[in-house]
Amino acid sequence: MTEYMQYLAFWTPGPVELIIILVIAVLLFGRRLPEIARGLGKSMTEFKKGVHEVEETKDELVNDVRKIGDDVVKETKNAAGLDEPEDMMS
């Protein structure tokens, strides 16, 4: 039973199955097939733009958090008197 489930979970259509799927799609959708493909292409483009926008926002947030963390450490050291001027370190 487990082998059967693994076989179903990782099934990928071969060339014969793809041809059958294509024939069924042409029979079902006929003239509307190019319109459907165009809509699918636009949807994929919008999805990719959204993913890219989310990645940019994440990077900006990470940079902001790091900057705030650095500022907190700097101010904490300054308040504790541990922040020495650079000319005294030499």
Structure commentary:
With 90 residues, the chain is mainly alpha-helical. It has one domain (16-79). 83% of the residues lie in helices and 0% in strands. The chain is elongated.
Structural class assignment: mainly alpha
Helix content: over 70%
User: Total number of β-strand segments?
Assistant: 0
Portion in strands: under 5%
Distance between the termini: 74 Å
Topology order in helix (H) and strand (E) letters: HHHH
Count the DSSP helices.
Answer: 4
Report the average pLDDT across residues.
Answer: 84
Instruction: Please give the radius of gyration in angstroms.
Output: 29 Å
Structure described in brief:
The chain is mainly α. It contains 4 helices and no strands.
Per-chain topology:
Elements lengths: L1 H8 L5 H15 L3 H48 L5 H4 L1
What keywords describe this structure?
mainly alpha
